[in-house]
Amino acid sequence: MRNALKLALMSLSLLGAAAVQAQIPALANCTRSANLLACVDGEGNAYSVNTVGSTIYLRGFEAAGKRYWAQTNSRYGQLTFFTGIASDGEAWVGYNRRVGWTTINRFSSSGGSSAKFTCSRITGC
Questions:
Q1: pTM (2 d.p.)
Q2: For this UniProt entry, which residues form the secretion signal (predicted)?
Q3: Which of 6, 16, 40, 68 could be bridged to 87 by S-S, CB 3.0 to 4.6 A?
Q4: Considering the domain boundaries, does residue 125 fall inside one?
Q5: 24 Cβ neighbours under 8 A, 6+ residues apart
């Protein structure tokens, strides 16, 4: 899985966590407004998360690959579908489904990556 996709999935997961920066101060330096979160980490990666209704727009820059990426997430109850594209042409699709305290995640990308994994608030991913 490419770094941009990992960063996008992690940033979406971080939206649901309260006081993330207080718990993990080295993760990223973030600025937040009512519906926009913009972050930069110590490696030079940058991303923003904009919420409009039940749609989440993610944009970012991956320092290691020197590429820009964008992802759109659409939420329907406990199910979230996402699609993304990077400046090098890689594209990805997937979904997250919440079942109680567990999240079932599945994605595939044009770069050949695909995975299905489960995350729990108690045991992690």
A1: 0.72
A2: 1-22
A3: 68
A4: no
A5: none
